[in-house]
Every structure is written in structure tokens, then in C-alpha cells.
Design goal:
This protein is 32% helix and 20% strand. By secondary structure, the chain is α/β, with parallel strands linked by helices. A 4-stranded antiparallel β-sheet has the order 7-1-8-9, covered by helices on one side. A 3-stranded parallel β-sheet has the order 4-3-5, sandwiched between helices. It is globular. The protein starts with a helix and ends in a 13-residue tail after the last strand.
């Protein structure tokens, strides 16, 4: 099985030119070389000129993909009273307070994102060491600590994704699925790239966007022309 995968991977790699592609052309090629028997996830890696060890060169936020992420997101909400009822009506998968805290402390994580109302952060804050490393800790900067839980749930389930530059200055972001059209993937990519450019830290030095690569779960990376920062769905041909 591993030998077959290696053969497919090598064959795909041979079709990729070293010269970066226009976004739409990169996604057309990505769809062509995808060979898995499941609907692969498409991601982008933005290599940025950031030293994230510096407090003023951090990059983190969320962006709503115009065509969704293709992923079913299970949302847990820490809320009570009217906010809890609003969360249930908005489609939250789990809603609770003390019992939900106990569930997390017991190591049960049957959700992909968490939202909390501000009044619950006293309880949720104690879960920081558990939720934080998993990227599940509610955060006001990301819109997941909010009195408007219905809005947060809608955005999370509708295709809002997080971007964050890691210690190497690379932001790894989900763009959708291989089953999406190349145009849908290019539009999602454009929304993410626009946001990353907009949120450039003022302290960033030198070239901000060094390189961009897109890939699917089982494919090699396809280089994207970082100078294309508009007209994302237009081919270079």
C-alpha cells in the first residue's frame, strides 16, 4: 500500500513545475493530481517574514471562507439561561456549564470548536491547560467569547477558519475539499490571502510573504505566485 502511495506521489510531483502558478491554475492542477479514494482536504501554507518570538510580530485570527470549508464542525457552547437556549436554536451540538466543564476535565472532546459567553469564562478559564494545546480555548479575539453565541455558531459551522503563524512564521490554513471546483478553492484562497495581507503586523521587516504552497491531504505541494493578490480566479494562460 505504501509503495503504491509513493508511486502516485512521485507521478504527481512530476507534473508540478517549479515556477509558481496563478491561484486558479494551481487548484486545477491540484484537482488533477489528487488520487486518494476519499475527499481530500485542501490547505495552504503561507511562509511569512515574521519572527513570532517577538510579541509585535504575532499573526492570528479567523476568516470566513465564501464557499465554506467542506467540514462538518461540531460546536460546544459554555452558556446558561437565555444564551444557552439561543445556542441550541442556532444548532450548537453541545450546550452546558458545570457538566460540560466536568466532561472536558474527564478528557472527553466530542467537539471541534468551543464558544463561551463572557460570564462563563471564570469556569472555562480553568480548562486553559486542557483546551489551549488543542486549539479549543474560547478567545475574545477570535470571536468565540461573546454574548452573541448564535452568530459565532453560524460562522463556525458556515466555514470560518483560523489562521496563525507558527514559530517558523508559517500560517497553515484549510481552504476546502478536492471536490470543490477550482474556482471555489481560488475564491476561498483569495479570502484568506486578503486577510493575511490586511493583518500584516506593523513590526514585520523585509519581505512579508516569502512563498505560498497549496496541497491536498495526499499530494505534494503546488507553488502559488504570491504576487497575485487580486483576480484570484483568472488563469495565467
Amino acid at each position: 500500500m505504501s509503495q503504491k502511495k509513493s508511486k502516485n506521489y512521485r507521478a504527481a510531483a512530476e507534473k508540478i513545475a517549479e515556477t509558481p502558478y496563478a491561484p486558479i491554475d494551481a487548484f486545477k492542477l491540484l484537482k488533477e493530481i489528487a488520487s486518494a479514494k476519499f475527499d481530500e482536504t485542501v490547505t495552504a501554507d503561507f511562509r511569512l517574514g515574521l519572527d513570532t518570538r517577538q510579541a509585535d510580530q504575532q499573526l492570528r485570527g479567523t476568516v470566513s471562507l465564501p464557499n465554506g470549508s467542506g467540514k462538518t464542525v461540531r460546536v460546544a457552547v459554555f452558556a446558561e439561561g437565555a444564551a444557552a437556549e439561543a445556542a441550541k436554536e442556532a444548532g450548537a451540538d453541545i450546550v452546558g456549564t458545570a457538566e460540560l466543564v466536568e466532561q472536558v476535565q474527564a478528557g472527553v472532546f466530542n467537539f471541534d470548536a468551543a464558544v463561551a459567553t463572557p460570564d462563563q469564562m471564570g469556569k472555562v478559564g480553568r480548562l486553559g491547560k486542557i483546551l489551549g494545546p488543542r486549539g479549543l480555548m474560547p478567545n475574545p479575539k477570535l470571536g468565540t467569547v461573546t454574548p452573541d453565541v448564535a452568530k459565532a455558531i453560524k460562522e463556525l459551522k458556515g466555514g470560518r477558519v483560523e489562521y496563525r503563524a507558527d514559530r517558523y512564521g508559517i500560517a497553515h490554513v484549510v481552504l476546502g475539499k478536492v471536490s470543490f471546483t477550482a474556482e471555489q478553492l481560488a475564491e476561498n484562497y483569495g479570502a484568506v490571502y486578503d486577510e493575511i495581507l490586511r493583518m500584516k503586523p506593523a513590526a514585520a521587516k523585509g519581505r512579508y510573504v516569502k512563498s505560498i504552497t497549496v496541497a491536498s491531504t495526499m499530494s505534494p505541494g503546488v507553488p502559488v505566485d504570491s504576487s497575485v493578490n487580486r483576480a484570484y480566479t483568472e488563469s495565467a494562460e
